[in-house]
Every structure is written in C-alpha cells, then in structure tokens.
Write a structure and sequence with these properties.
29% of the residues lie in helices and 19% in strands. The protein is built from four helices and six strands. The strands form two sheets. Strands 3, 4, 5 and 6 form a four-stranded mixed sheet that branches. Helix 2 links the parallel strand 3 and strand 4. The protein starts with 9 loop residues before the first strand and ends with a helix.
Amino acid sequence: MREVALGEHERLDDLMRSGRKIIQNTREFCFSLDAVLLAHFPRYRSRQRVLELGTGTGVIPLLIADEVAHVEAVEISPVMAELAARNVHMNELEEKAITGPSARSTRRSHSTSCWPTRRTALWHTARSTR
C-alpha cells in the first residue's frame, strides 16, 4: 500500500480485506454495511470484467478486485471520483482498474470514470440467476 496525505475532513478506514484501506471524506457520502454486503452477494468468476456505475469512493471495486479480472468504475461527482481514483492508487490496483478522464483534465464533462458500483453488482446478480 502506498502512503497518502489526507485532506481536510478525510479519514483512512481499514477494509479488513487483503490489507486494503479506503479514504473517505466525512462531508460526503461514506459507505456502510450495505455496500460490503452487496459486494459479496454475487458469485464472481476470475475471468469476469465488472462495471460499476456510481462508485462513490470505490469501495466495491476495492473489495472485489481479487475475485475478478478487471473492474471499471464510473462516478459523476468529481469529489467522489477523485477519492475513488486515490483509493485505487493507494491500494496499488491500477492494473485492475481503468480510470477515464478526470474532472480536472476535461472541462466538457462533469462525469469521471473511475471504478465499479452497486448497480452493476445488482445487474450482474440478476443476469446470473437466469
């Protein structure tokens, strides 16, 4: 794990999985037990690629990175997308994640690609049960 500097209103939480940690901003949405449960609900395959929409801080990608081939996350909030990208970098998971153009590098779009979300896991679960 790489060392990171925490900003104002940020805290570092232990995910208790593979030595991973996550940066959360106390003034933004912080993940809770529902994200952890949702990340472990689907049965993943090692060759699967996962897309998460609305990833927030990227907690689900951090939790499932060891179980799938690749995860891609998308987050519309520039603050949360930045946190997700920092969390991927801090946990040295760049090879498992694709990060698209950030809010800082493009003024045309307010969306930022980062890593996977709850909706994807639900979609994946619905497709797996057919």
